[in-house]
Amino acid sequence: MSELLIVDNDKQCRREVCAIIQESKYSFLSIYESSTAHRGMLLLKQSKPSALMIDISLPDTDGIAFGKIALQLYPDLPIIVMTQLKMFELVQSSINAGFLGYLLKPLSKNELIETLDRVLIPVLSKSINQVMKSNEEPFTADLKNPIGSAIQYMQIYYSEPLTLKGVADKVYLSPSYFSKLFKEETGMTFVEYLSFVRVQKAKSLLRMSTLPIEVIANNAGFANSGYFATTFKKLTGITPSDYREQFHLEAEQGLTISAGGV
Questions:
Q1: Within-domain flag for 105
Q2: What's the domain range around 32?
Q3: Mean pLDDT per 10-residue run, the chain (262 residues)?
Q4: What is the sign of the dihedral through the CA atoms of 126, 128, 130 and 132?
Q5: Is 111 left (phi over 0), alpha (psi -120 to 50) or beta?
Q6: Are 179 and 165 contacting, i.e. CB atoms less than 8 angstroms apart?
Q7: What are the Response regulatory domain coordinates in residue numbering (predicted)?
């Protein structure tokens, strides 16, 4: 589950953060709140969140000290600091502590979303990739069927930066012969087939999740969301966002028809 923990005794600020997130592409996040460091630490120890947002001036401890303890528990936890204080020393202390974001109150919607984009997308992509990889069968090359083995390898490791030479090496063929044989057996070039696989994987995530397009693009192996959108539209005729919207619309119509027939 993707979670965001907010530790801040400023109730109005917590409400603002929740409202901004609920109206954004990160509405799928489960948000947990605490007004004190003590309760925040209890929540933190119960479950590792996808990110932590803390105010520097907590009533029972210093926010930076709290963040340092959180990093001792989870060294790769993204931490975003919030404060009303415009002091360079605080920014420097946050950076030195290993925090990834620094936001001034009152919070700006654009700055908050941009910060979440920067710190959350890599975390979510890594988490999804680990889950999907755990369900895959281990790869073993069949030298009697090198192209079939290459296809299996691409189906498993599509989210990684695959190259023709790299996959050819896995099935013990020269890049030129592998390229020729791949086109003969599949009717597609290596790049065309890899794009096809990645788009198919992306379709599943678009249908079954509300994850941001950027996260899905990254998880499907595309360098950026712009290239993903271009490739997706080239192969399907519509954009990823339109595909998701169309799928959910058809699903809702199907449920309506089913309910009407009962």
A1: yes
A2: 3-126
A3: 89 94 88 94 90 92 92 93 79 80 89 90 78 68 92 91 95 95 95 95 85 89 93 95 84 53 48
A4: negative
A5: alpha
A6: no
A7: 3-120
